[in-house]
Design a protein that fits this description.
Blueprint: H1 2-16, E1 23-24, E2 39-43, H2 52-61, H3 77-82, H4 91-96, E3 100-103, H5 111-127
Antiparallel strand pairs: 1-2, 2-3
Length: about 130
Amino acid sequence: EMRQAREKVALRFLDMLADVSQLTLPLNSNDRIHSWHLFPIRLNLEELSVDRGQFIDELRDLGIGTSVHWRPLHLYPYYKDSIGWQAQDCPKANSLWPRLISLPIFSLMTEDEINYVASSVKALCVRLTR
């Protein structure tokens, strides 16, 4: 029931943010069951006038908390120190990392909360377009 409720939230986000060119949304495949425990978006930074940190700050000012997940392994001290991994060793992860944020998603999100998050993200993208 909780997964299905999160899926409904995710589908609303996917619908409401589908036309925002400044974002790349997660894929929703009909041949898989997604847990939707996170709703990760990629910022198309080449279209925005801010970086991820500033985008997160702007959302925080609107009362919307976000998270940053999936830190590339080469950024963890263990892998840096023990293996000597550097940014050039993981070019794909390195290019993706500064673009990723997770929007709030939870099973008890109300329609008003969903609308507020999606409309705020959309308006922010328009305002911060290059």
